[in-house]
Structure formats: structure tokens, C-alpha cells
Amino acid sequence: MLPVIALIGRPNTGKSTLFNRIIGKKHAIIANEAGTTRDRVYMHTNIGKNRVILVDTGGLSFNDEIDFETEIKAQTKLAIAEADLILFVTDSSQPLTASDQEAAILLRKTNKPVIIVANKSDHSAAQSHINELYALGFSEPIAISAIHNTGIADL
Questions:
Q1: Per-residue pLDDT tens for 15-63?
Q2: Beta bridge partners of 42
Q3: Buried-most residue among 68, 78, 106, 145 (CB within 10 A)?
Q4: Model-level pTM?
Q5: Backbone conformation region of residue 39, classed left if phi is above 0, alpha if psi is from -120 to 50, else beta
Q6: 154 lies in a domain?
């Protein structure tokens, strides 16, 4: 069975852009509105010499008052359960949010390997926000810009 890598993070961190960048084509829908990706999107792809299943997920939000966000969270939790590795995609153009911190708590409970991906690292405020990511208690963040294709090889 192929290893499963899940892209997890709050809405609008660039998970779908990163998904498309890794697979090398525009498969996942990208939009500026939160909630564009609602279901899990799977794609077989190669990362280096390894064949993997990459999973794009909807933005993980902890506002259960909105019906579709509850559904997205359920889909995301299924992806987390299936994953062998989690790429926790954050938006380094903004400070850490309560949703980032709640997602980190959820991911730590899984005891699965988690790599923090500091997306949008080309933004002028990114470095100070990347430093905040150490507080989440995972490995060293990997700074990338999915839209500009920088740092992807490091990932």
C-alpha cells in the first residue's frame, strides 16, 4: 500500500495550491474564498523516487456553528486518520491564529509525523510569523511559496 500524505491547515493557507504544485498540474480548485475545498481530493504522485497518495483537504475551522464547516472538519479528520504523514500548511504572511493552535493540538494527539509548512514565505512579514510556528511544538518549519514555487524542493 502506498504511503498517504495529507495536507492539513486552516482555510486559505494555500493547501490546494501546494497540492497542485506537488502533483504538477491544476487538479484541485483554487479560490480566495474560504470553503472552496470541502471534500478530500486524492491523487497518486511521485515525490522524488517515492510513489505516494497525496490528499488535499478543506480548511480546518473550529466554528461548528456553520454547517459546512462541520462537514469539512469531519472530512479532514478522516484524512488525518488515513495519513502516514501530515503536512500542516500555515500562512506565514499572517500571525498564528486560534485555528492554527487548535489544529496543532488535534494533530499532536494523532502521534503521527507532522511537518509544518510555512507557505506564503515570500511575504514581507513572513519571517517573524515563521518564528511563531516553533511554539506549536513540531519540527522546524519549512518555508515555501507554493504559488511562486520556492522551497518546494526542500519540502
A1: 999 999 999 877 555 545 554 555 789 999 999 899 999 999 988 877 6
A2: 55
A3: 145
A4: 0.89
A5: beta
A6: no
Stretch among 23-27, 37-41, 79-83, 151-155 having the lowest mean pLDDT: 37-41
Q: Is residue 149 part of a domain?
A: no
Specify the DSSP class assigned to residue 48. T
- Residue 134's nearest CA partner among 110, 101, 111, 109 is 101
Q: Is residue 101 part of a domain?
A: yes
Asked, for residue 150, whether it belongs to a domain, the answer is no
* Digit-coded pLDDT (tens) for 107-147: 999 999 999 999 999 998 899 899 999 999 998 999 999 99
Q: How far, CA to CA in Å, does 106 sit from each of 26, 50, 61, 151, 153?
A: 29, 28, 12, 26, 27
CA angle 32, 38, 39 (to 5 degrees): 140
Tell the burial category of 4 from Cβ atoms under 10 Å away from its Cβ (0-12, 13-18, 19+).
Answer: middle
CATH number of the domain residue 89 falls in: 3.40.50.300
Range of the domain at 28: 4-143
